TrEMBL record:
SUPFAM superfamilies according to UniProt: Nucleotidylyl transferase
Principal subcellular localisation of the protein: mitochondrion
Protein name stated in the entry: Tryptophan--tRNA ligase, mitochondrial
EC number(s) per entry: 6.1.1.2
GO cellular component, one term: mitochondrial matrix
Matches recorded under InterPro entries: aa-tRNA-synth_I_CS, aa-tRNA-synth_Ic, Rossmann-like_a/b/a_fold, Trp-tRNA-ligase, Trp-tRNA_synthetase
UniProt entry tagged with the keyword Protein biosynthesis: yes
Highest taxon above the source species: Eukaryota
């Protein structure tokens, strides 16, 4: 299986190189080559096993976009290690997470023959473009990012006096949205499937695309297209323990999230203890009943129905009966990916081949972007 895959992967890399060169040389000649397909880019941090929020809010959409893509669409998915190190990581754990994340992406259905899948840190174009963008990004804009404000709020709540000072927070936490813009624009991506928490960062990417075009591109041509955020209906899956905040990898309470690798009994226990309320019956009311609304969103995403439809269908169920329906649906959803993940994580040679080929194919696109960017800026 490994050798057969390797041959297909190599053939694919060659085809991508030929097609990309043809497309890019038209642009280099000054013709704005007609962009026929979408360029889809997205990333995920290797900071642990993805949870149900990552899956329903982003990853399942990656697979959907891949499976519905036309022949002209390009799909590029990255494991963004440089983002992960904005917070302290243990080297061995980060390294293991990088490979586990790749196994996870393949296990949920990302096909390396159809999509480019690679480690961000295998392609230095991202950091080079990020530096150029850093030099045109107003610091005030970064300080207004809600993610930065949340870090500041966290540090104010910290006990240690040294952490209260903003100057003690690392610069990467302030500037990573610029790196994110570079991740996307290095491929001149047009569509970015993400959860709702990323909308503000996407807006920055759009602004930087416009700013770069206005500042550096002769005739102010649209060299960088402003990328569009592609948000799923389950754009914000909430914590099972605190349905006023999002489900998150970094929450200290492991009962608050369902992991893609959780066993059926772990899924049962987490959903059984999910915080709801004492109202009788099932209704969809995100303001007054956020816990039940969250479970309706989850079940809706599993079954392809809207939360309101399901609320009508299960109006007379008790909370316990309803939780048991959600449990069955989530167990079914993760059964296949979990088995495939367990198989793939032991196929290290195959994973390395996929990552190497993915990085090579990614570089074909981004190196051409950077070649032109250097010319626009005067770095040649
Ligand atoms: N709760 C969520 N609901 C919907 N979408 C979500 N995403 C994350 N949490 C939810 C989406 O998952 C994609 C990858 O996220 P990431 O790994 O880059 O990390 P993150 O956005 O910082 O969220 P995490 O996984 O919960 O980590 P922490 O704890 O660090 O915040 C993104 O498209 C994101 O929108």
């Amino acid at each position: 299986m490994f050798l057969a895959t390797k041959r297909v992967v190599q053939c694919n890399a060659l085809c991508v190189r030929q097609l990309t060169r043809r497309y890019l040389s038209a642009e280099a000649a000054g013709n704005e080559a007609p962009r026929r397909g979408k360029i889809v880019f997205s990333g995920i941090q290797p900071t642990g096993v993805p949870h149900l929020g990552n899956y329903l809010g982003a990853l399942s959409n990656w697979v959907k976009l891949q499976n519905e893509a036309s022949a002209e669409d390009q799909l590029i998915f990255s494991i963004v290690g440089w983002h992960a190190i904005t917070l302290p990581q243990k080297a061995k754990e980060l390294s293991a997470s990088r490979w586990d994340m790749l196994a996870t992406l393949l296990a949920i259905g990302i096909d390396p023959k159809r999509s480019i899948v690679f480690h961000q840190d295998d392609n230095r174009c991202h950091t080079e473009l990020a530096w150029i963008f850093n030099c045109i990004t107003p610091v005030g804009k970064l300080r207004r990012m809600t993610t930065w404000k949340a870090r500041l709020a966290d540090s104010r709540n910290a006990n240690s006096a040294s952490e209260i000072d903003e100057s003690m927070l690392n610069a990467g936490l302030l500037t990573y949205p610029v790196l994110q813009a570079a991740d996307i624009l290095a491929y001149r991506a047009t569509h970015v499937p993400v959860g709702e928490d990323q909308v503000q960062h996407l807006e920055l990417s759009r602004e930087l695309a416009h700013l770069f075009n206005r500042t550096f591109v002769p005739g102010k041509k649209r060299f960088f297209p402003p990328p569009i955020a592609d948000i799923t209906p389950s754009k914000r899956v909430l914590s099972l323990r605190d349905p006023t905040s999002k489900m998150s990898k970094s929450s200290p309470d492991i009962q608050s999230r369902i992991l893609l690798t959780d066993s059926p009994s772990q899924i049962t226990s987490k959903l059984r203890s999910a915080v709801t309320d004492s109202t009788i019956g099932i209704t969809y009311d995100p303001i007054n009943r956020p816990g039940i609304a969250n479970l309706l969103t989850i079940l809706g995403a599993c079954l392809g129905k809207t939360p309101s439809e399901l609320a009508e269908e299960y109006a007379n169920k008790s909370n316990a009966e309803f939780k048991s329906l959600v449990t069955d649906a989530v167990q079914d959803l993760f059964r296949g990916p979990r088995t495939e993940f367990e198989r793939l994580r032991n196929e290290r040679a195959y994973l390395e081949e996929v990552a190497k080929d993915g990085a090579e194919r990614a570089r074909v696109h981004s190196e051409e972007t950077l070649r032109q960017v250097r010319q626009f800026v005067g770095l040649y």
